[in-house]
Amino acid sequence: MSSKLHLSPKADVKSLISYVATKTKAINGKYHRFLERNFPRFYLLYTTFTKGLQKLWADAKKSRRIKADMVKHNVKFHQLSYREMEHLRQFRRDVTKCFFLGIISIPPFANYLVFLLMYLFPRQLLIRHFWTPKQQIDFLHIYHDIRKKSHPEVLSYLEKVIPLISDEGLRWHMTELCTKIRRGTHPAIQEILALRKSFSNHPLGMNQLHASQIKALSRAMLLTTYLPSPLLRHRLKTHTTVIHQLDKALAKLGINQLTDQEVKSACYLRGLNSTLIAEERCRTWLAEWLQISCNLKEAELSLLLHNVVLLSTNYIGTRR
Fold first, then answer.
1. Which helix (H) or strand (E) holds 108?
2. Which of 117, 181, 214, 228 stands 20 to 30 A from 188 (CA)?
3. What are the Letm1 RBD domain coordinates in residue numbering (predicted)?
4. 184 domain-assigned
């Protein structure tokens, strides 16, 4: 009588699947090593693209889970935790950029042109997940140089409207602040907060800002300026409100709970070129920003918007 043991059909299938998976992984590893050895530049693009897709898919799943929880528990955006709010904010921006890319690839055979454009203009057309490590650093410098060009224009507008401020004491404070910044001095928190009332109504309230200042502030926030003034104003107000909500959530969480990368990303969003600054200095600057932001009312958010320029222009280590 034979004592030979036979595997069940189910076990055979599992064994076959395991064997195929192992072989596929080995072949894939050899293929990667071949590309890395013989085509290093292509391999870098290939791995960046595949990892980017994985990150984007993971972001999409996380955003879907957060939104499902918001519906389930009847939670508004501003009631989320800091990390959930920041994730949704960034994912919305990423999706907007991807949506534009999808639109231009709709016509027949346009996808071939889109791939060429993606290769030639990665900063303009691709989101951060599809940038190489070197591109991430280089592009952040380029974007900051773009918004830094708007700083003199924003300051000039503030100096121009000083005579229109009705309160004499506020006029003096504004003159002193602009003079300090022009001379390269980093302003103190109280010097900025002393001007809250100036930014709640004419001439520096959010609804009273001139179209030229709206465009300059849009560039300072890395937002497009190619929209009609009413839409630019609405977008700036929305963007500033979201940052204010993020600030409140971050103050509740505590800066000490953030990783170094999260701190640098938070600083960069708020106008500081954190790629040039040590982590501890970034944390100090972010604490200053939060102290200002958390003392502002909704009607005073124009000051928070201008703070992107006022607080970042002369911070130590930002000049290249």
1. none
2. 214
3. 146-320
4. yes
